[in-house]
Amino acid sequence: MLHFDPSSAASLIALCLCFVLVCVFEFANGFHDTANAVATVIYTNSLKPTVAVVWSGLMNLLGVILGGISVAYALVELLPPDVLSPPSGNPAVPMLVALFGTALAWNLMTWWFGIPNSSSHCVIGSLVGIAIGDSFVHARELGHSVDWSQIWKVLSALAVSPLLGFVGALLLYFLIKSLVKMPEMYKAPMPEQKPNPIVRAVLVLTCTLVSFSHGSNDGQKSIGLIMLTIIGIMPAAFALNPASPVSIEQIRQDAQQALPLVTQYDRYSFKGDAVASIHRLSQTGEPAEAPSELRGDVYQVLSGLRSVAANPAASDADKKLASHLAAELRPTVEYAPGWVRLLSALCLGIGTMVGYKRIVRTLGEGIGTTHLTPAQGAASEVVGAGLIMTAGYTGLPVSTTHIITSGVAGTMVAAGSGINKKMLTKIVMAWLLTLPVTVCVAAAVFYLLV
């Protein structure tokens, strides 16, 4: 695919196909993760299924629109700079095909078997796989050509958040049980039996919080993926932020300050590319580069500055300056138009309204040996919503599925309900396999396509 002319009909068709795939992936993300928000209100008869998923879909949509973009570009920056913004645009097609094809296939397979699995893990594993595949394509040493500091930062948030969900929901359940003396909170309603109005209001509120928080975090992921795709399709229009006029003089000054920081670190595979980009950006006069080439140079500098900020040998002053310069350069290339936010919100919201039954049944009946009770559902959802919203506004991608599922398991343990070991084994196996499978498949697909 590297032999395709970026402006050829074949490349444009492939990129348009990738645009469709990212919308389908976000749609699948919606119906795959819907159960995290609606399982409690459906299993306690607080809301009819149709009403619950429509309401959850609307809250997901609102969460995407009101959320930021820090998570979106935390994921995008997992990619090497030469793949992320190549001057010729050539690797865009194989990168996007490997990314969406791998993530979507694994997401749909786990949904088909009713296993709560993380769409975030699918995307992150695919991005890491592409970074590794790119290293093999260029025969680079893995230790210094993949941004492991950014990868460990993302993976750490994914690993710690389920543990916090489990412990937090367990403790909150104990607190609710000690303070709320309402028997209806601790037993699953009979079929068609409506819960106490207060219980019902609490559960609808927690459903709303989880849905909104899911949109604010997971919606950002698709925003980043949509931006990668439209920049590949129309680099002249979207390579640089049209809402923020590019200050060439400011970029030049930042590049000149970045030069001594980047050049002093030897063990960095993209050092030569970053230094060359800095020299181009430091030239006086108006740049002769096309917008996509200017974007590529800015991303090379950003990659070098991240390497400085993550280097243990760098002084605190150097790290602080590197982070400051990166913060000034990012708005030029890291942005999201309003219509991209709206498209992401619509795909996620509409997806939320369908396909929920398989995962709902697992969460409501499969994790514990007894059915979910209102108190268990409320505790897991309050803790989950708090963790997800906190992560969303601090730029850390987390898995709604893992947090809520872990929270439900924590409340089952707290209530003495017991854990369904067979189902828990399936879920844990899916969690453990997702990253290695998506990393390997995406790396192989990218390597073969380029």
TrEMBL record:
InterPro entries: Phos_transporter. The keyword Nucleus does not apply. It holds the Pfam family PHO4. It comes from the Bacteria. GO terms for biological process: phosphate ion transmembrane transport. GO terms for molecular function: phosphate transmembrane transporter activity; symporter activity. One of its GO terms (cellular component) is plasma membrane. It catalyses: phosphate(in) + H(+)(in) = phosphate(out) + H(+)(out). Keywords: Cell membrane, Membrane, Phosphate transport, Symport, Transmembrane, Transmembrane helix, Transport. It is found in: Cell membrane; Membrane. The chain crosses the membrane at residues 12-31, 52-75, 95-115, 122-139, 151-176, 197-216, 222-243, 427-449. It is a multi-pass membrane protein. Belongs to the inorganic phosphate transporter (PiT) (TC 2.A.20) family. Pit subfamily. This is Phosphate transporter. The lineage of its organism: Bacteria, Pseudomonadati, Pseudomonadota, Alphaproteobacteria, Acetobacterales.
